[in-house]
Amino acid sequence: MIEAGLIIFVMMAMFMAIIDYSIAFFIQATFRHAAREGTRFAITNRTIGGGCHVDSIKSVVRQNAMGFLRTTDLQKIKVQYFNPATQQAIVNAGANNGGNIVMVTISPCELQNGSDCFTWNWVAPFMRQDTPMRVRARSADVMEAPQLGVLPCV
Hints:
Blueprint: H1 2-42, H2 53-63, E1 77-82, E2 89-90, E3 101-106, E4 118-120, E5 133-135, E6 137-142
Antiparallel strand pairs: 1-2, 1-3, 3-6, 4-5
Helix pairs in contact: 1-2
């Protein structure tokens, strides 16, 4: 009985660690997929429901995040446009012109208070720090020329 009690504790700790790490890797893979899908949507200059381009991209990313990003978590998704020649960010109208680079980032972690970070709190914090893991994903591609020459609003 004593041996079983000692072994069960160790086995349960190992089992919880396996589950914990698996969930963290699953979230990371899901966010990478969601960022790629957002970028794939972005390069086509389409919009959803007549909204602006960035809002539509964020909606696509959230839909592909398998429920890990709620509608209140849209500040955790960042869409940026860059000039391919200078690598400088473009923030004005026409940023989504054909040939520019679009980058979709989930959990940019740029705000001081950390409200734009997605964190995963460990289920079993055995043998590691009690701090949550930050999950981040990023994808970029070159924008296509808009159909009929009409750009949606940024």
